[in-house]
Amino acid sequence: MIELQKVHKTFDNNHVLRGITLFVPQKTSIVIIGGSGTGKSVALKCIVDLIKPDQGRILIDGHETNAQSRHKLFDRFGMLFQGGALFDSLPVWQNVAFRLLRGSLKRPWTEAREIAIEKLRRVGLSPDVANQFPSELSGGMQKRVGLARSIATDPEIIFFDEPTSGLDPIMAGIINDLIREIVVEIGATAMTITHDMSSVHKIADDVAMLHNGIIQWFGPVNEMGHSGDPYLEQFISGKAEGPIEAIR
C-alpha cells in the first residue's frame, strides 16, 4: 500500500533521509522508531506530500504521489497528530466531522454530526461530549477525539504521529488498545512513528528502525528481542553506551 524507493531529503547541509526504501503491505501496521532528529517525521511528511523529497519515489497503492493525485490521496488518509491539533473554536463533533463538512468528502450537516457521534462512541466517548469544546476536555479525551477524527471518513490508510505523547501510562495503554482494535476493525493500513516501546509492541505488525537517515533494521515486532542489531538493542534498552551517540 505504501512504498518508498531510495528517498532522500536534505535541509541545507543536514542530510535527514539518505535513501530510505520501505514497503508497507496492505492492511498491515508498521511502526517507525528511532531517536529524536533521525528523520521519522520528515519521512511521514514526505509520504503525505507535505514535504517534497529531493530524490526517490513514493507510491501509494502503486501510484506515485504528485500534485495531480494529492487531493485524491488525501481523501484516503486519516491522521492522528501528536499534539491533537484540534480546533479550539469548534465543538468536538465539528472537529471529528471536519473533513465531512467540506471538500470532496462533504456530507449533509445532520449526517456528518451522526457520523461524528458514532465515531466518538467508538473511541469510548459519550454523545454529550459532542457539544463540548476541546478546552473542556482532559488530555486523554482530546487524544480520543483526535482518534475519532482520524477514522471519521473510514480511511484506507491511517498515520499516527506519537499517539501516546503526553499521556500517563494507563491512558497510553487505552489509546494503544483502541488504535489496534480500530485498525483491525476497519482493515486499514497503518503507519505510526513513536518513541514509546509499549506502543510498538501493542500496535505493530512490523517495525522499522530509522537511524542516521537509513532504515537500520526492519522486521516483525516479535523478532525485535533477538535481532542481533546493536543499534536496535541499544534503542530498546535505553543504554547510553553503544553505537548510537547521544546528543549532549
The share of residues in extended strands comes to: 15-25%
Name the structural class: alpha/beta
- Tally of helical segments: 8
Rg over CA atoms: 18 Å
Large-scale geometry: globular
* Overall helicity: 25-40%
Which parts are unreliable, with pLDDT below 50 for 5 consecutive residues or more? none
Compute the separation of the termini in Å: 39 Å
Would you list the SSEs in sequence order as H and E?
EEEHEEHEHHHEHEHEEH
Would you report the number of β strands?
Answer: 10
The spatial strand order of the largest sheet comes to: 6-7-8-3-9-10
Could you explain how this protein is built, in words?
- This protein is α/β, with parallel strands linked by helices.
- The chain is 31% helix and 25% strand.
- It is built from eight helices and ten strands.
- The strands form two sheets. The protein has a six-stranded mixed beta sheet with strand order 6-7-8-3-9-10.
- A hairpin with a 2-residue loop joins β9 (206-211) and β10 (214-220).
Provide a compact summary of the structure.
The protein has about 250 residues and is of the alpha/beta class.
How are the SSEs placed, and which strands pair?
Elements: E1 2-11, E2 14-24, E3 29-33, H1 40-47, E4 55-60, E5 63-64, H2 70-74, E6 77-80, H3 92-96, H4 109-122, H5 139-150, E7 157-161, H6 169-186, E8 189-193, H7 197-203, E9 206-211, E10 214-220, H8 230-237
Parallel strand pairs: 3-8, 3-9, 6-7, 7-8
Antiparallel strand pairs: 1-2, 1-4, 4-5, 9-10
Helix pairs in contact: 4-5, 5-6, 6-7
